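User: I'm new to structure prediction. If I give you an amino acid sequence, what do you actually give back? Let's try with this one:
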Amino acid sequence: MLSAYIDSKESAPPDLVEFKTRLNMFNVAQYALVRGGGILLVAWILLYSPAGLRTRSILMQAHAWTLLSLYAAFCAVYVFRQYSNIRARRLSRPPSPTHIPMELDGPAPRSMQLRIPTRPAIIVVPYGVLMGLGFAALVFTTLTIAPASKTESLLLSHALGITISLAIFCARMFSLVMEDGIRKFVAQPLRTFLRPGFWLHGGLFGAAVGTVIAYRAGYVPNFSIYAASLAIGLPLYETFSRLGCHTYGCCYGCPVDMINGVPSTRSHLLWRMLPYSPVTYNHPSDYAATRAEPKLLHQPLLPIQLISATAFFLLFAIVSLPLAVYVSPELAGVVTLAAHAAVRLLTETCRADFRGQINGSMSSTGKMAILQGFVGFAAVAYILFFENDFRAAHVANWSHVLNDGRLSASSLAVVVGTVVYGVHIEEIGRWVPENDFAPQPVQRSVDKK
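Assistant: Good question. You get back a string of structure tokens that encode the predicted 3D arrangement of the chain. For your 449 residues, that looks like this:
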């Protein structure tokens, strides 16, 4: 209410603005201390207390850890964002190459990114942390459903390393081909390759290839269960990755009254089903949306990534996990693939970035989602008609979470995701300093007489 009152005034009283800033500081402190302490307490109860250990239901445990992880991620993003806002108000930074000087109407630019004052400057974006949490959720889900023993869990940890590494590599390669183009890559191969940018369906292709390689290398005891567990964890991974895209400003939604540049009310129908406000990106260079289209600065956009994250979380909690626990992990995996493709197609037309733009009858990512959905539905039909022996997933014991490799592998996944997706050099959208590509001047020796 106070923020709305201040925004309604052309020139708010300085004392009132300072009071609001102090309230924000207090709120950040209580989020970090009170809620952070509560999160740690709940995690300790789930891991160590008799009440937590008595809760043997995998569904209840999975819901508890999933909700706790999402709430922890929400609190972390809130603290990071509010701290950045407060710091931006307190400090007056001179223009630099990473901050495009612009005359802006409205509030001062705000940034959610963490800048480390080194040479060259290192920028850490929340997108990387959330991607790391997504990988951790995928790893934890797989190691909870797939292994039948501690030995198998250790083997599958190696398999996941191969799978995730190839998924990241292929996601980058698909982005390089589809976004940058072969001509640009041939003209500037190193600069083009060493630029952040990833394509989801390239990652899915890489994960499939990595799964086959890991199986051939002997790290996967049961191929069908391992592949199914990866598919089951996909919507939970997507939940975190969509939240990351929301903070980064990529894959952004269309204006609230537009779809693919055409006035429409469909976005309102999808948007009003969920209690989300329009998202506005109010920094000219720190968000992918405003870097790609400066006209989107301060413009209300459909929060399509928040909507997608909610849909994927509901898919995991209501469909994927119950099917795996009570029916069959194989059936749960193929149903999840088909439903994941359906969610992608449903939200595709509400995006304004170039991946969501129509190219012919359908966008390129829409065509990939159609192919994925066809594979998923075909696999569902095959299992229902030819596989009659449905067996529920064998779930790893929760009391062994500290010594069976799940926690260490998940922690490593967070680090990998944060570094690969979250670390930028000098400016957002760059992995190496610009000076490394600049031609070096030729130094000629001059004879002094």
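You can read the tokens as a compact description of the fold. Here is one thing that stands out. Residues 256 and 269 are 10 Å apart (CA to CA).
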